Amino acid sequence: MAAMIGHQDAEKAFLEAWQGGRLHHAWLLAGPQGMGKGSFADRMARFLVTHGPGGARTAVALDDRGDDAAARLVDAGNHPEIIRLTRQPKDKGKDLARNITIDQVRQMIRRLHLSLSLGDWRVIIVDAVDDLENDGANALLKTLEEPPTKTLFLLVSHSPGRLLPTIRSRCRILRFQPVDRDVMLSWLHGLRPMLNMPEARAIVGASGGVPGKALALIDSDVAAMEKKLLAIAVSGDPENRLREALAREVGGTTNRARLELVIDIVPGLLAAMARERPVAEIALVLAQWDRVQRTVRDAIRGSYDGTMVGFEIGNCLAELAPRPAQTAR
Predict the structure, then answer these.
(1) Taking a C-beta distance cutoff of 8 angstroms, is the pair 194, 68 a contact?
(2) Is the dihedral of CA 187, 191, 194, 195 positive or negative?
(3) Are 175 and 189 in contact (CB under 8 A)?
(4) Pair 132, 251 in one domain
(5) CA dihedral for 168, 174, 176, 177, sign (positive or negative)
(6) Which of 271, 232, 234 shows the shortest CA–CA distance to 250?
(7) Residue 97 CB neighbour total at 10 angstroms
(8) Is the pLDDT confidence value at 81 over 90?
């Protein structure tokens, strides 16, 4: 698994609380999806069940191994004091249920009444707390209001503003903010040195500073997307086949990252075309650049229909196709 970035402040806050012996019973890990909040919760849980009650004066790091026997159980996914609530596969298939159910929360609460069987801490990870059913959220709230001793709740949230205010108020919040562009570029270059700089910049720009999103975009193949866009600009796509394919590829909520990649690629593509065109044609390229920008602005203000945006970007590129020379009469 690729190392994530953007966790330094959260790690410092957690370790200072542990070393000071003032570890809050519930932590809300809040920020955009793809920041690695779930993996950070796993690291917090691993640290607690392998390092004792806290209040240590010696310097430690979050990934220090600690007790070897406990660490081996964590590695095997069998540590009895780490409980995870996540959406489960439905009907034994690959698709996940829409929510974390009230039954899952009740089962977790029953386990809280049992004595610790190993170590000094029990850790409950809810990933993501946004996925709780209403009844499950209310049941969790009651537990947060009267928490068992030596029990830590780690609540992962991609949309903390949508949570019950009373849940938020019971938690200490760790915020995971998008990473600075230059830091992202350096990280991505170290992680994928085969990427050329224009590709890396396109990925970082489309990722919005979210590392997990950047990793997903690498699989989108920036060079292949540029080739598809250029094919529209070169051919004019007279039968609309290329534009329709582009619209399908970037449409829908599941393809939002791919659409944002296209939006980030197009300005650079148009700039390159402007440099290569005769002076008389530069105005046409700039006009299409303005048209792309208007399309994106209107989409953000409206419903953000990815299919429509993708097709309209294709229309802009098609306008730049070379026109056949007219036969002199």
Answers:
(1) no
(2) negative
(3) no
(4) no
(5) positive
(6) 232
(7) 15
(8) yes
Over residues 156-180, the pLDDT tens digits come to 999 999 999 999 999 999 999 999 9
Does one domain contain both 29 and 135? yes
The pLDDT, as a whole number, for residue 327 is 42
What is the C-alpha separation between 15 and 56, in angstroms, rounded? 10
2 found inside a domain: no
Both 79 and 148 in a single domain? yes
Structure tokens at 89: 């596969």
SS (H, E, C) the chain: CCCCCCCHHHHHHHHHHHHCCCCCCEEEEECCCCCCHHHHHHHHHHHHHHHCCCCCCCCCCCCCCCCHHHHHHHHCCCCCCEEEECCCECCCCCCECCCECHHHHHHHHHHHCCCCCCCCCEEEEEECHHHECHHHHHHHHHHHHCCCCCEEEEEEECCHHHCCHHHHHCCEEEECCCCCHHHHHHHHHHHCCCCCHHHHHHHHHHHCCCHHHHHHHHCCCHHHHHHHHHHHHHHCCCCCHHHHHHHHHHCCHHHHHHHHHHHHHHHHHHHHHHHHCCHHHHHHHHHHHHHHHHHHHHHHHCCCCHHHHHHHHHHHHHCCCCCCCCCCC
The Cα 18–Cα 236 span in angstroms is 62
- Residue 328 is assigned to a structural domain of this protein: no
